[in-house]
């Protein structure tokens, strides 16, 4: 099987990029998005288009598209038997790669340098799914992905919870007292805030934890460590100076599984539904919005508000010169869209919401309860 794998950057660029195709099992090339790399690793994902064994497409050079999703979304292969391609943000050894592999154990995990590239990779049919972090038990929400969910038109088809155990990594021969600085993803740095303060290390943010490890290894840094996973230590040949350095031993990140098509919601297993809506300004409007769920005994598991970007400020009607920010509300609730009470709740909400979109109705990941 001819395959090439690289970090996905802009899929638009990918379509015009030179493609390197190898006959081997894909070994993702890595690239520092924040640190200039001498070697361009911009081989492309277009190989996937050659992987489909579709004679018509191969002969006519036409892009072959995988079939749209059905309710069999949890299967590990696409309909032609090839492995499911799952985009994640980061380089090899990132927690997001582990999340993609937890969601789809036999998948081909495809690294992307930005969250936006992962969304686009699904939209452009370069991959079948994306697995992206949305919240962490210590660090809170990953706001960027909330904003991207709205900007793109993908559907949430599942969630995956991953226990995140951070290590302090350094080059071999480097001791803890040699370190003055540590690199990592901002969420990872936040999750280890107390430990890093105790050790007295200055912090620098990079795009993902594994990228931090790769940078420390590649540049043979002696005064800089990385907060990353033990698998990143193995991949980049670093020494583990300290294990489990997160501020709480129960450190869990929840990831969303995104696809081009929604799944047909069921009622056999516990399901969750994610929505986003906006409301008119006024006293008690949010209370009224949340009451549509309370009235039907529907439990909410998450609420997040984000500024409505294209109209961030609005004058109040009362002419007293005050201005309001407009907000979008993201809500997760414990019910399937196949349930009448969920349909009724949303019908009720629609009566006064100025905007409402269902982002997905999907099975709850019960593995970490
Ligand atoms: O940097 C990584 O390794 C990631 O996969 C990203 C990420 C995140 O965005 O929250 C994922 C899990 C951990 O919470 C820390 C970082």
TrEMBL record:
Domain Prephenate dehydratase: where?
85-260
- Quick one: a GO biological-process term for this protein? L-phenylalanine biosynthetic process
Annotated compartments = Plastid, Chloroplast stroma
> From which domain of life does this come?
Eukaryota
Q: Which UniProt keywords apply?
A: Amino-acid biosynthesis, Aromatic amino acid biosynthesis, Chloroplast, Lyase, Phenylalanine biosynthesis, Plastid, Transit peptide
Which PANTHER family does the record associate with it? AROGENATE DEHYDRATASE_PREPHENATE DEHYDRATASE 2, CHLOROPLASTIC, PREPHENATE DEHYDRATASE P PROTEIN
Statement: the UniProt record of this protein carries the keyword Transcription: no
Q: What is this protein called?
A: Arogenate dehydratase
Reaction(s) catalysed (UniProt annotation): L-arogenate + H(+) = L-phenylalanine + CO2 + H2O; prephenate + H(+) = 3-phenylpyruvate + CO2 + H2O
Show the GO MF annotations.
Answer: arogenate dehydratase activity; prephenate dehydratase activity
Annotated metabolic or biological route of this protein: Amino-acid biosynthesis; L-phenylalanine biosynthesis; L-phenylalanine from L-arogenate: step 1/1
Q: Which GO terms describe its cellular component?
A: chloroplast stroma
Protein task: Converts the prephenate produced from the shikimate-chorismate pathway into phenylalanine.
Source organism phylogeny: Eukaryota, Viridiplantae, Streptophyta, Embryophyta, Tracheophyta
Q: Where in this chain does the record put each ACT domain?
A: 274-363
EC number, UniProt record:
4.2.1.91
Record Pfam families: PDT (PF00800)
């Amino acid at each position: 099987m001819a395959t090439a794998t690289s970090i996905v950057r802009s899929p638009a660029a990918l379509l015009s990029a030179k493609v390197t195709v190898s006959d081997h099992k894909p070994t993702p090339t890595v690239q520092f998005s924040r640190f200039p790399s001498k070697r361009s690793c911009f081989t492309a994902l277009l190989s996937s288009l050659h992987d489909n064994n579709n004679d018509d497409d191969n002969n006519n050079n036409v892009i072959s598209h995988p079939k749209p999703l059905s309710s069999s979304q949890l299967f590990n292969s696409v309909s032609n038997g090839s492995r499911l391609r799952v985009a994640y943000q980061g380089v090899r050894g990132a927690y997001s790669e582990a999340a993609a592999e937890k969601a789809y154990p036999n998948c081909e995990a495809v690294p992307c340098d930005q969250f936006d590239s992962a969304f686009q990779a699904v939209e452009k049919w370069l991959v079948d799914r994306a697995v992206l972090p949305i919240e962490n038990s210590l660090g809170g929400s990953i706001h960027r992905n909330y904003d991207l969910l709205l900007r793109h038109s993908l559907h949430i088809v599942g969630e995956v919870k991953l226990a995140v155990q951070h290590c302090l990594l350094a080059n071999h021969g480097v001791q803890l007292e040699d370190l003055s600085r540590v690199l990592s993803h901002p969420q990872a740095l936040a999750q280890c805030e107390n430990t890093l303060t105790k050790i007295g290390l200055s912090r620098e943010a990079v795009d993902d934890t594994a990228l931090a490890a790769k940078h420390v290894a590649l540049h043979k840094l002696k005064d800089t460590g990385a907060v990353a996973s033990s698998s990143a230590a193995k991949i980049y040949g670093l020494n583990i100076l300290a294990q489990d350095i997160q501020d709480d031993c129960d450190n869990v990140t929840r990831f969303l599984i995104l696809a081009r098509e929604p799944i047909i919601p069921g009622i056999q297993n516990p399901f969750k539904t994610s929505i986003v809506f906006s409301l008119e300004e006024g006293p008690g409007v949010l209370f009224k919005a949340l009451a549509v769920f309370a009235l039907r005994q529907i439990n909410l598991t998450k609420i997040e508000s984000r500024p409505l970007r294209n109209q961030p400020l609005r004058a109040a009607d009362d002419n007293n010169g005050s201005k309001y920010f407009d907000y979008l509300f993201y809500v997760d609730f414990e019910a399937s869209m196949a349930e009448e009470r969920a349909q009724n709740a949303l019908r009720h909400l629609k009566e006064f919401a100025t905007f409402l979109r269902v982002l997905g109705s999907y099975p709850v990941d019960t593995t970490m309860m």
